[in-house]
Amino acid sequence: MNFLKHALVCATVLCMTGCVWLRDLPYRDRRRAADQAFEARQYILAAARYESLKDQYPETPIRQDLLFRQAVALYSVASYYEAKDVFGEYLEEFPHGTYRDDAEDHIRKIDVMMSRATPVEAKKLEQAKAKNDLNVLMKLMKDHPNDWRVLDAIGDTYWKLDEYEKAVEYYYEANRIASTYEERELNNGRLILDDEGNPVPVNPQVLEKFEVERQPVRVYGLHTYKARNLRDENGGDIQFYNLTGSLRNQGERLLLNVQVEVVYRDIANNILDVDRVKVGALGPGEVRSFLSTADNYDNLLNIVDQEVEVFWRD
User: Fold this and answer.
1) Domains (range + CATH), the chain
2) Hey, what's the torsion of the CAs at 222, 227, 231, 233, to 10 degrees?
3) pTM of the predicted protein model
């Protein structure tokens, strides 16, 4: 009899565990990714992932874990207002939850920190920014360490001095405090995150590299000429308007199914003809020429301009 009771208890536990396991299955990989970011101290990324999980799966049995970890992640990047809201949400949903004492303790700490972190007076900040006075800005930062506007102003000042790496440190710290999610725009495009999640200044050299990757094919050496119909024994009339040019893949990836589209226009910008030339694959650094011919027009002499656009797939 005892054996049967024991077997029944085990079966019940296994069933419950199995149910949780099955309910956890749809988002297990995403939960693991969020936890990995949290353990690696990539708190902004972790907070964003926990937020997404708890919104998409509100009935999950691990909801209190998601809430608490999201709140801790926000607290760790000094996003105190957001962290306090999430800790409060946790206590409201789980008043006797596993992390109740820790959540209450964090809220007390946040109240103390927020009372000390008073925003800097706007007038003082504007005066310091106008003068690009690093000494004044550094003093303001010491007095107001959690005011992201001061850090942002310091970043602007270093940027104007062409000290990009130094500027990035302060831009990143400003975003660390001001932003909850890494998806938010970073300092008006002056700062991006690389594949490893590290901050990179978008200086002119970086912008040039991005532009090459965005539009890797350069079109150059364009020449136009008119041609006769060679099938006519007497040379024939001029019937074709030709455009030749070259393509160069300045990027670092192989481009497949490259095609050149040429639009021929008249003086009123009306389209007279459209020709699409197949070029094929174009490897990194490779140069290929192309020839486009317009033969569908009211009068060849009306063609005064052409637009060239290149298409491909990776």
Assistant:
1) 12-116 (1.25.40.10), 122-212 (1.25.40), 217-313 (2.60.40.10)
2) -150
3) 0.40
